[in-house]
Design brief:
Blueprint (H helix, E strand, L loop, with lengths): L2 H9 L35 H4 L5 H4 L5 H12 L20 E5 L5 E5 H7 L9 H15 L7 E6 H13 L5 E5 L4 H7 L5 E5 L1 E2 L2 E2 L1 H14 L6 E4 L13 H13 L3 E5 L24 E6 L10 E6 L1 H15 L4 H45 L3 E2 L8 E6 L5 H10 L5 E2 L13 E5 L8 H16 L2
Parallel strand pairs: 4-5, 4-8, 8-9, 9-10
Antiparallel strand pairs: 1-2, 3-11, 6-7, 10-11, 12-13, 13-15, 14-15
The chain binds 4'-deoxy-4'-aminopyridoxal-5'-phosphate.
Cofactor: pyridoxal 5'-phosphate
InterPro entries: Aminotransferase_I/II_large, Class-I_PLP-dep_aminotransf, PyrdxlP-dep_Trfase, PyrdxlP-dep_Trfase_major
Protein name: Aminotransferase class I/classII large domain-containing protein
Length: about 450
Protein backbone atom coordinates (compact mmCIF):
# COMPACT_ATOMS: atom_id res chain seq x y z
CA UNK A 1 0.00 0.00 0.00
CA UNK A 2 1.32 3.36 -1.01
CA UNK A 3 2.01 6.37 1.16
CA UNK A 4 -0.79 8.08 -0.76
CA UNK A 5 -3.23 5.41 0.37
CA UNK A 6 -2.14 5.87 3.96
CA UNK A 7 -2.57 9.62 3.60
CA UNK A 8 -6.12 9.10 2.31
CA UNK A 9 -6.91 6.84 5.21
CA UNK A 10 -5.72 9.38 7.72
CA UNK A 11 -7.29 12.38 6.06
CA UNK A 12 -10.63 10.82 5.34
CA UNK A 13 -12.79 11.49 2.32
CA UNK A 14 -14.66 14.65 1.71
CA UNK A 15 -18.32 15.23 1.45
CA UNK A 16 -18.73 17.78 -1.29
CA UNK A 17 -21.98 19.20 -2.35
CA UNK A 18 -22.78 22.15 -4.51
CA UNK A 19 -26.00 23.99 -3.77
CA UNK A 20 -28.71 23.28 -6.23
CA UNK A 21 -26.70 20.74 -8.23
CA UNK A 22 -27.93 17.45 -6.82
CA UNK A 23 -29.22 15.75 -9.99
CA UNK A 24 -30.29 12.39 -8.74
CA UNK A 25 -32.39 13.42 -5.82
CA UNK A 26 -35.61 15.28 -5.48
CA UNK A 27 -35.98 16.60 -1.92
CA UNK A 28 -39.74 16.26 -2.08
CA UNK A 29 -39.15 12.51 -1.92
CA UNK A 30 -38.17 12.97 1.69
CA UNK A 31 -38.19 16.40 3.28
CA UNK A 32 -36.29 19.59 2.74
CA UNK A 33 -33.46 20.47 5.10
CA UNK A 34 -31.77 23.22 3.17
CA UNK A 35 -32.70 26.73 2.25
CA UNK A 36 -33.04 28.29 -1.17
CA UNK A 37 -31.63 31.51 0.31
CA UNK A 38 -27.82 31.67 0.21
CA UNK A 39 -25.83 30.21 3.09
CA UNK A 40 -24.37 32.83 5.44
CA UNK A 41 -21.26 34.62 4.19
CA UNK A 42 -18.49 33.46 6.53
CA UNK A 43 -14.77 32.78 6.50
CA UNK A 44 -14.11 29.03 6.69
CA UNK A 45 -12.03 27.78 9.60
CA UNK A 46 -8.63 26.32 8.72
CA UNK A 47 -7.04 23.20 10.23
CA UNK A 48 -4.99 25.54 12.39
CA UNK A 49 -8.19 27.20 13.68
CA UNK A 50 -9.66 23.87 14.74
CA UNK A 51 -6.73 23.29 17.09
CA UNK A 52 -8.15 25.81 19.54
CA UNK A 53 -11.38 23.84 19.79
CA UNK A 54 -9.81 20.45 20.44
CA UNK A 55 -9.50 19.54 24.11
CA UNK A 56 -6.08 18.73 25.56
CA UNK A 57 -7.32 15.20 26.24
CA UNK A 58 -8.46 14.64 22.67
CA UNK A 59 -5.25 16.11 21.24
CA UNK A 60 -3.34 13.31 22.97
CA UNK A 61 -5.21 10.58 21.07
CA UNK A 62 -3.20 8.75 18.44
CA UNK A 63 -4.24 6.25 15.81
CA UNK A 64 -3.49 2.60 16.57
CA UNK A 65 -1.24 1.14 13.89
CA UNK A 66 -3.20 -2.07 13.62
CA UNK A 67 -6.41 -0.14 12.91
CA UNK A 68 -4.68 1.70 10.08
CA UNK A 69 -3.59 -1.63 8.69
CA UNK A 70 -7.18 -2.91 8.88
CA UNK A 71 -8.28 0.08 6.81
CA UNK A 72 -5.45 -0.42 4.33
CA UNK A 73 -6.19 -4.08 3.90
CA UNK A 74 -9.85 -3.22 3.29
CA UNK A 75 -8.78 -0.85 0.53
CA UNK A 76 -6.18 -3.25 -0.87
CA UNK A 77 -8.92 -5.83 -1.46
CA UNK A 78 -9.46 -9.37 -0.34
CA UNK A 79 -6.59 -10.93 -2.31
CA UNK A 80 -3.78 -9.49 -0.22
CA UNK A 81 -2.04 -12.06 1.99
CA UNK A 82 -2.31 -10.68 5.49
CA UNK A 83 -0.18 -11.73 8.39
CA UNK A 84 -1.12 -8.43 9.92
CA UNK A 85 -4.58 -8.56 11.37
CA UNK A 86 -5.50 -10.23 14.61
CA UNK A 87 -9.04 -10.87 13.43
CA UNK A 88 -11.29 -13.81 14.14
CA UNK A 89 -11.41 -16.41 11.40
CA UNK A 90 -14.76 -16.38 9.64
CA UNK A 91 -14.58 -20.21 9.88
CA UNK A 92 -15.67 -19.89 13.52
CA UNK A 93 -18.78 -17.80 12.76
CA UNK A 94 -21.78 -20.01 13.51
CA UNK A 95 -24.32 -18.22 11.29
CA UNK A 96 -24.98 -19.10 7.67
CA UNK A 97 -28.05 -17.10 6.78
CA UNK A 98 -29.96 -14.05 7.97
CA UNK A 99 -33.23 -12.96 6.48
CA UNK A 100 -35.40 -10.04 7.59
CA UNK A 101 -38.64 -8.91 6.03
CA UNK A 102 -40.20 -5.48 6.37
CA UNK A 103 -43.90 -4.88 6.87
CA UNK A 104 -43.94 -3.44 3.35
CA UNK A 105 -42.54 -6.64 1.85
CA UNK A 106 -38.89 -5.58 1.34
CA UNK A 107 -36.23 -8.13 2.18
CA UNK A 108 -32.79 -7.98 3.74
CA UNK A 109 -30.80 -11.16 3.16
CA UNK A 110 -27.25 -11.72 4.31
CA UNK A 111 -25.49 -14.94 3.41
CA UNK A 112 -22.14 -16.22 2.10
CA UNK A 113 -19.39 -13.62 1.83
CA UNK A 114 -21.81 -10.77 2.67
CA UNK A 115 -22.78 -12.38 5.94
CA UNK A 116 -19.17 -13.26 6.77
CA UNK A 117 -18.20 -9.62 6.18
CA UNK A 118 -21.13 -8.48 8.35
CA UNK A 119 -19.81 -10.57 11.23
CA UNK A 120 -16.21 -9.33 10.93
CA UNK A 121 -14.29 -6.27 12.11
CA UNK A 122 -14.37 -3.25 9.80
CA UNK A 123 -12.54 0.11 9.64
CA UNK A 124 -13.38 2.49 12.48
CA UNK A 125 -15.34 4.84 10.23
CA UNK A 126 -17.86 2.10 9.49
CA UNK A 127 -18.79 -0.41 6.80
CA UNK A 128 -17.28 1.35 3.74
CA UNK A 129 -20.35 1.04 1.49
CA UNK A 130 -22.58 2.36 4.27
CA UNK A 131 -20.19 5.26 4.84
CA UNK A 132 -20.46 6.14 1.12
CA UNK A 133 -24.24 5.81 1.23
CA UNK A 134 -24.56 8.09 4.27
CA UNK A 135 -22.16 10.64 2.76
CA UNK A 136 -24.42 10.87 -0.27
CA UNK A 137 -27.65 10.91 1.76
CA UNK A 138 -26.34 13.70 4.00
CA UNK A 139 -25.17 15.67 1.03
CA UNK A 140 -28.50 15.26 -0.79
CA UNK A 141 -30.66 16.10 2.21
CA UNK A 142 -28.74 19.11 3.50
CA UNK A 143 -26.80 20.42 0.52
CA UNK A 144 -24.14 21.89 2.78
CA UNK A 145 -21.87 24.62 1.41
CA UNK A 146 -18.93 23.05 -0.41
CA UNK A 147 -16.34 22.52 2.32
CA UNK A 148 -14.55 19.23 3.06
CA UNK A 149 -16.58 17.09 5.45
CA UNK A 150 -16.92 13.43 6.19
CA UNK A 151 -19.13 11.04 8.13
CA UNK A 152 -18.48 8.55 10.92
CA UNK A 153 -20.98 5.79 11.69
CA UNK A 154 -21.68 5.84 15.45
CA UNK A 155 -23.58 3.56 17.83
CA UNK A 156 -26.58 5.83 18.17
CA UNK A 157 -26.22 9.60 18.34
CA UNK A 158 -25.66 9.18 22.08
CA UNK A 159 -22.24 7.79 21.27
CA UNK A 160 -21.64 10.75 18.91
CA UNK A 161 -22.53 13.11 21.76
CA UNK A 162 -20.14 11.40 24.12
CA UNK A 163 -17.30 11.60 21.62
CA UNK A 164 -18.04 15.21 20.64
CA UNK A 165 -17.95 16.35 24.26
CA UNK A 166 -14.66 14.53 24.80
CA UNK A 167 -13.37 16.22 21.66
CA UNK A 168 -14.25 19.77 22.69
CA UNK A 169 -14.73 20.21 26.40
CA UNK A 170 -12.07 20.97 29.01
CA UNK A 171 -13.03 20.24 32.64
CA UNK A 172 -14.81 23.23 34.18
CA UNK A 173 -15.13 25.08 30.86
CA UNK A 174 -18.35 26.86 29.78
CA UNK A 175 -20.82 25.22 27.41
CA UNK A 176 -23.98 26.63 25.80
CA UNK A 177 -27.19 24.60 25.98
CA UNK A 178 -30.91 25.20 25.66
CA UNK A 179 -32.24 26.04 29.11
CA UNK A 180 -34.10 22.73 29.22
CA UNK A 181 -32.32 20.04 27.32
CA UNK A 182 -31.73 16.36 26.70
CA UNK A 183 -31.06 14.45 29.87
CA UNK A 184 -28.62 12.10 28.07
CA UNK A 185 -26.47 15.08 27.17
CA UNK A 186 -26.27 16.16 30.80
CA UNK A 187 -25.14 12.63 31.69
CA UNK A 188 -22.24 13.10 29.31
CA UNK A 189 -21.42 16.55 30.70
CA UNK A 190 -21.48 15.78 34.43
CA UNK A 191 -17.96 14.36 34.91
CA UNK A 192 -16.51 17.45 33.21
CA UNK A 193 -18.17 19.71 35.80
CA UNK A 194 -18.65 22.41 33.15
CA UNK A 195 -20.18 25.84 33.57
CA UNK A 196 -23.51 25.20 31.90
CA UNK A 197 -24.96 28.33 30.29
CA UNK A 198 -28.66 27.65 29.69
CA UNK A 199 -30.19 29.90 27.04
CA UNK A 200 -33.93 30.47 27.56
CA UNK A 201 -36.46 29.43 24.94
CA UNK A 202 -39.94 30.56 24.00
CA UNK A 203 -42.33 28.29 22.10
CA UNK A 204 -40.20 28.71 18.96
CA UNK A 205 -36.99 27.63 20.67
CA UNK A 206 -33.82 29.45 21.68
CA UNK A 207 -34.07 33.23 21.67
CA UNK A 208 -31.04 34.49 19.70
CA UNK A 209 -31.18 37.99 21.21
CA UNK A 210 -30.70 36.53 24.69
CA UNK A 211 -27.85 34.37 23.43
CA UNK A 212 -26.23 37.46 21.96
CA UNK A 213 -26.52 39.48 25.17
CA UNK A 214 -25.16 36.58 27.26
CA UNK A 215 -22.15 36.26 24.96
CA UNK A 216 -21.55 40.00 24.78
CA UNK A 217 -21.65 40.30 28.55
CA UNK A 218 -19.15 37.48 28.99
CA UNK A 219 -16.85 39.05 26.43
CA UNK A 220 -17.03 42.46 28.15
CA UNK A 221 -16.32 40.89 31.53
CA UNK A 222 -13.35 38.98 30.09
CA UNK A 223 -14.93 35.61 31.03
CA UNK A 224 -13.91 32.38 29.33
CA UNK A 225 -16.02 32.02 26.16
CA UNK A 226 -17.89 28.78 25.37
CA UNK A 227 -16.40 26.65 22.60
CA UNK A 228 -19.68 25.11 21.52
CA UNK A 229 -23.48 25.27 21.67
CA UNK A 230 -25.37 21.97 21.99
CA UNK A 231 -28.71 22.27 20.20
CA UNK A 232 -31.61 19.99 19.35
CA UNK A 233 -33.06 22.28 16.68
CA UNK A 234 -36.08 20.23 15.60
CA UNK A 235 -38.54 18.76 18.07
CA UNK A 236 -36.36 19.64 21.02
CA UNK A 237 -36.31 17.17 23.90
CA UNK A 238 -38.16 18.18 26.15
CA UNK A 239 -39.75 21.38 24.80
CA UNK A 240 -40.94 20.17 21.37
CA UNK A 241 -39.86 23.40 19.67
CA UNK A 242 -38.73 23.68 16.04
CA UNK A 243 -36.25 26.50 15.66
CA UNK A 244 -37.30 28.67 12.67
CA UNK A 245 -34.86 29.41 9.84
CA UNK A 246 -34.37 33.05 10.87
CA UNK A 247 -33.26 32.05 14.36
CA UNK A 248 -30.96 29.36 12.99
CA UNK A 249 -29.30 31.93 10.74
CA UNK A 250 -28.93 34.38 13.60
CA UNK A 251 -27.42 31.74 15.89
CA UNK A 252 -25.03 30.69 13.13
CA UNK A 253 -23.99 34.30 12.66
CA UNK A 254 -23.33 34.53 16.41
CA UNK A 255 -21.25 31.35 16.22
CA UNK A 256 -19.04 33.06 13.65
CA UNK A 257 -18.92 36.33 15.58
CA UNK A 258 -18.23 34.84 19.02
CA UNK A 259 -16.20 31.95 17.67
CA UNK A 260 -18.02 28.85 18.83
CA UNK A 261 -19.01 25.58 17.15
CA UNK A 262 -22.52 24.16 16.89
CA UNK A 263 -23.16 20.60 18.03
CA UNK A 264 -26.36 19.89 16.11
CA UNK A 265 -28.18 16.84 17.53
CA UNK A 266 -31.12 16.24 15.20
CA UNK A 267 -32.77 12.86 15.84
CA UNK A 268 -36.25 14.39 15.36
CA UNK A 269 -35.52 16.03 12.01
CA UNK A 270 -38.06 13.80 10.24
CA UNK A 271 -40.61 14.34 13.00
CA UNK A 272 -41.38 17.97 12.21
CA UNK A 273 -45.13 18.66 12.26
CA UNK A 274 -44.94 22.24 10.97
CA UNK A 275 -44.66 21.18 7.30
CA UNK A 276 -42.30 24.13 6.92
CA UNK A 277 -39.02 23.36 5.20
CA UNK A 278 -36.34 24.21 7.70
CA UNK A 279 -32.63 24.21 6.91
CA UNK A 280 -30.35 22.31 9.24
CA UNK A 281 -27.35 24.07 10.75
CA UNK A 282 -25.24 21.83 8.52
CA UNK A 283 -26.89 23.30 5.45
CA UNK A 284 -25.95 26.81 6.64
CA UNK A 285 -22.41 25.84 7.54
CA UNK A 286 -20.27 27.98 5.27
CA UNK A 287 -17.48 28.27 7.87
CA UNK A 288 -17.11 24.60 8.94
CA UNK A 289 -18.48 25.20 12.44
CA UNK A 290 -21.02 22.38 12.66
CA UNK A 291 -20.71 18.89 14.07
CA UNK A 292 -23.96 17.24 13.10
CA UNK A 293 -25.41 14.09 14.64
CA UNK A 294 -28.00 12.10 12.72
CA UNK A 295 -29.95 9.18 14.08
CA UNK A 296 -32.61 6.87 12.71
CA UNK A 297 -33.56 5.69 16.22
CA UNK A 298 -36.94 7.46 16.29
CA UNK A 299 -38.02 6.65 12.76
CA UNK A 300 -36.55 3.21 12.09
CA UNK A 301 -35.27 1.38 15.19
CA UNK A 302 -33.24 2.46 18.20
CA UNK A 303 -31.99 -1.10 18.62
CA UNK A 304 -30.07 -0.88 15.34
CA UNK A 305 -28.11 2.09 16.81
CA UNK A 306 -28.23 3.53 13.29
CA UNK A 307 -26.55 6.93 13.50
CA UNK A 308 -23.72 8.98 12.08
CA UNK A 309 -21.75 12.14 12.74
CA UNK A 310 -20.83 14.65 10.03
CA UNK A 311 -18.00 17.11 10.59
CA UNK A 312 -15.02 18.84 8.99
CA UNK A 313 -12.09 16.38 8.60
CA UNK A 314 -9.96 18.00 11.33
CA UNK A 315 -12.72 17.24 13.85
CA UNK A 316 -13.98 14.00 12.36
CA UNK A 317 -10.54 12.40 12.49
CA UNK A 318 -10.40 13.11 16.22
CA UNK A 319 -13.89 11.67 16.74
CA UNK A 320 -12.71 8.63 14.86
CA UNK A 321 -9.72 8.21 17.17
CA UNK A 322 -12.10 8.32 20.10
CA UNK A 323 -14.37 5.70 18.55
CA UNK A 324 -11.36 3.53 17.80
CA UNK A 325 -10.26 3.65 21.44
CA UNK A 326 -13.77 3.23 22.79
CA UNK A 327 -15.30 0.42 20.70
CA UNK A 328 -13.24 -0.01 17.48
CA UNK A 329 -16.36 0.57 15.37
CA UNK A 330 -20.16 0.38 15.41
CA UNK A 331 -21.81 -3.03 15.19
CA UNK A 332 -21.00 -4.43 11.73
CA UNK A 333 -24.11 -6.58 11.56
CA UNK A 334 -26.37 -3.61 12.28
CA UNK A 335 -24.51 -1.56 9.67
CA UNK A 336 -24.87 -4.33 7.08
CA UNK A 337 -28.61 -4.60 7.75
CA UNK A 338 -29.04 -0.84 7.50
CA UNK A 339 -27.05 -0.66 4.27
CA UNK A 340 -29.03 -3.36 2.56
CA UNK A 341 -32.30 -1.90 3.77
CA UNK A 342 -31.43 1.56 2.44
CA UNK A 343 -30.28 0.07 -0.88
CA UNK A 344 -33.38 -2.09 -1.23
CA UNK A 345 -35.75 0.70 -0.32
CA UNK A 346 -34.07 3.39 -2.38
CA UNK A 347 -35.08 6.96 -1.62
CA UNK A 348 -38.74 6.26 -2.30
CA UNK A 349 -38.89 3.43 0.24
CA UNK A 350 -37.08 5.51 2.83
CA UNK A 351 -39.49 8.37 2.22
CA UNK A 352 -42.46 6.03 2.75
CA UNK A 353 -40.98 4.85 6.05
CA UNK A 354 -40.30 8.41 7.22
CA UNK A 355 -43.72 9.68 6.21
CA UNK A 356 -45.32 6.75 8.02
CA UNK A 357 -43.35 7.45 11.21
CA UNK A 358 -44.20 11.14 11.13
CA UNK A 359 -47.89 10.47 10.52
CA UNK A 360 -48.01 8.03 13.44
CA UNK A 361 -46.37 10.46 15.85
CA UNK A 362 -48.45 13.37 14.56
CA UNK A 363 -51.69 11.46 15.21
CA UNK A 364 -50.51 10.70 18.75
CA UNK A 365 -49.48 14.30 19.33
CA UNK A 366 -52.90 15.48 18.14
CA UNK A 367 -54.67 12.93 20.33
CA UNK A 368 -52.77 13.97 23.46
CA UNK A 369 -53.35 17.66 22.62
CA UNK A 370 -57.11 17.01 22.43
CA UNK A 371 -57.11 14.90 25.61
CA UNK A 372 -55.15 17.52 27.56
CA UNK A 373 -57.51 20.23 26.35
CA UNK A 374 -60.46 18.15 27.51
CA UNK A 375 -59.13 17.20 30.96
CA UNK A 376 -56.30 19.54 32.02
CA UNK A 377 -57.23 22.92 30.54
CA UNK A 378 -57.39 24.74 33.89
CA UNK A 379 -54.76 22.68 35.62
CA UNK A 380 -51.70 23.20 33.46
CA UNK A 381 -50.14 25.27 30.71
CA UNK A 382 -48.46 24.03 27.53
CA UNK A 383 -47.79 24.70 23.86
CA UNK A 384 -48.61 21.95 21.41
CA UNK A 385 -45.17 20.68 20.27
CA UNK A 386 -44.14 21.47 16.70
CA UNK A 387 -41.90 18.43 16.47
CA UNK A 388 -40.55 15.41 18.32
CA UNK A 389 -42.24 13.34 21.00
CA UNK A 390 -42.89 15.53 24.03
CA UNK A 391 -45.26 18.00 25.64
CA UNK A 392 -43.50 20.30 28.09
CA UNK A 393 -46.20 21.09 30.62
CA UNK A 394 -46.04 23.73 33.32
CA UNK A 395 -48.10 23.23 36.49
CA UNK A 396 -49.17 25.73 39.04
CA UNK A 397 -46.96 24.17 41.71
CA UNK A 398 -43.50 24.95 42.97
CA UNK A 399 -42.13 21.47 42.45
CA UNK A 400 -43.49 18.35 40.76
CA UNK A 401 -41.16 15.80 42.29
CA UNK A 402 -43.43 14.54 45.08
CA UNK A 403 -46.33 14.42 42.72
CA UNK A 404 -44.41 12.31 40.20
CA UNK A 405 -42.89 9.83 42.62
CA UNK A 406 -45.78 9.51 45.09
CA UNK A 407 -49.23 10.58 43.89
CA UNK A 408 -48.83 9.69 40.21
CA UNK A 409 -47.01 6.46 40.95
CA UNK A 410 -49.73 5.34 43.39
CA UNK A 411 -52.40 6.06 40.79
CA UNK A 412 -50.49 4.08 38.15
CA UNK A 413 -49.24 6.97 36.02
CA UNK A 414 -45.57 7.22 35.07
CA UNK A 415 -44.25 10.73 34.47
CA UNK A 416 -40.91 12.47 34.02
CA UNK A 417 -40.32 15.48 36.32
CA UNK A 418 -38.88 18.66 34.79
CA UNK A 419 -35.70 18.18 36.81
CA UNK A 420 -34.63 15.43 34.42
CA UNK A 421 -34.33 18.08 31.71
CA UNK A 422 -32.29 20.53 33.81
CA UNK A 423 -28.57 20.30 34.39
CA UNK A 424 -29.10 20.98 38.09
CA UNK A 425 -31.51 18.25 39.13
CA UNK A 426 -31.65 19.43 42.75
CA UNK A 427 -33.58 22.66 41.99
CA UNK A 428 -37.40 22.56 42.12
CA UNK A 429 -39.25 22.37 38.80
CA UNK A 430 -42.90 23.12 37.95
CA UNK A 431 -42.62 21.17 34.68
CA UNK A 432 -43.52 17.70 33.50
CA UNK A 433 -42.33 16.06 30.30
CA UNK A 434 -45.08 14.01 28.70
CA UNK A 435 -44.00 11.53 26.02
CA UNK A 436 -46.78 10.59 23.61
CA UNK A 437 -44.72 8.45 21.24
CA UNK A 438 -45.48 5.04 22.75
CA UNK A 439 -49.04 5.62 23.95
CA UNK A 440 -51.73 4.14 21.72
CA UNK A 441 -54.40 6.51 20.42
CA UNK A 442 -57.13 4.73 22.38
CA UNK A 443 -55.20 5.15 25.66
CA UNK A 444 -54.48 8.86 25.31
CA UNK A 445 -57.74 10.01 26.90
CA UNK A 446 -57.21 7.75 29.93
CA UNK A 447 -53.68 9.12 30.30
CA UNK A 448 -54.84 12.75 30.33
CA UNK A 449 -57.74 11.92 32.68
CA UNK A 450 -55.32 10.23 35.09
CA UNK A 451 -52.99 13.21 34.89
CA UNK A 452 -55.84 15.59 35.76
CA UNK A 453 -56.74 13.37 38.71
CA UNK A 454 -53.11 13.37 39.92
CA UNK A 455 -52.84 17.17 39.67
CA UNK A 456 -56.12 17.69 41.51
CA UNK A 457 -55.11 15.28 44.28
CA UNK A 458 -51.80 17.11 44.63
CA UNK A 459 -53.50 20.51 44.72
CA UNK A 460 -55.92 19.37 47.40
CA UNK A 461 -53.05 18.41 49.75
N1 LIG B 1 -30.39 13.12 21.36
C1 LIG B 1 -31.64 13.36 21.74
C2 LIG B 1 -32.12 14.76 21.76
C3 LIG B 1 -32.49 12.32 22.10
O1 LIG B 1 -33.76 12.61 22.47
C4 LIG B 1 -32.01 11.00 22.06
C5 LIG B 1 -32.87 9.81 22.45
N2 LIG B 1 -33.80 10.01 23.41
C6 LIG B 1 -30.70 10.80 21.66
C7 LIG B 1 -29.92 11.86 21.31
C8 LIG B 1 -30.10 9.41 21.60
O2 LIG B 1 -30.52 8.78 20.44
P1 LIG B 1 -29.80 7.49 19.85
O3 LIG B 1 -30.75 6.37 19.98
O4 LIG B 1 -29.50 7.84 18.43
O5 LIG B 1 -28.54 7.27 20.63
Amino acid sequence: PSAKLLKNVLEGHTLHSVRGVSQSFNYEDIFKFYSDAPAPAATPLTDRDYERFISKRSALRQPGLTRQITQLSYQAGRDAVSLAEGMASSAVFPFTHLRLETSGGAEVTLEGEKLRAALQYVPTQGLPDLVSHLRQLTSDLHRPPPLPRDVLVTSGSQSGLYMAVDLLLEPGAPVLVQEHSYTGFYSVLKPYQPEVIGIPEDHHGVIPEILESVLEERLCKGQLMPKFFYLVPTGSNPTGTVLPEGRRRKIYELACRYDFLILEDDPYMFVNYTDQPVPSFLSLDSAGRVIRLDSLSKVLSPGLRAAWATAPPALLQRLQLHQEAHCLHSCTLAMAILLQLLQTWGRAGLATQLRGARALYRARRDALAAALRAHCAHLAHWHVPEGGMFFWVRLNVEDVRDMVFKTAFEKGLMLVPGQACNYDTSAPSPHLRLAFSKVKLEDMDTAARLLADVIRTEQAK
